[in-house]
Amino acid sequence: MNTGNSLLCFFAGVAAGAVAALFLAPDSGVNTRARIRQGASDVVGKAKEKIAEGLDDIETALGEK
What we know:
single chain
């Protein structure tokens, strides 16, 4: 098995553990859903920032040629 597959399996396990911890935590459903929504919103916001940075880098690289 190569390193890429090993890392993918590792991160899949981490994600599964995090989801299980959220759903098994002794908190109300309302609070758990709010935390999930906030976490998803944070991830989407960070992804949008990274995409914008990448597009800026591409535009800069294309402008220099």
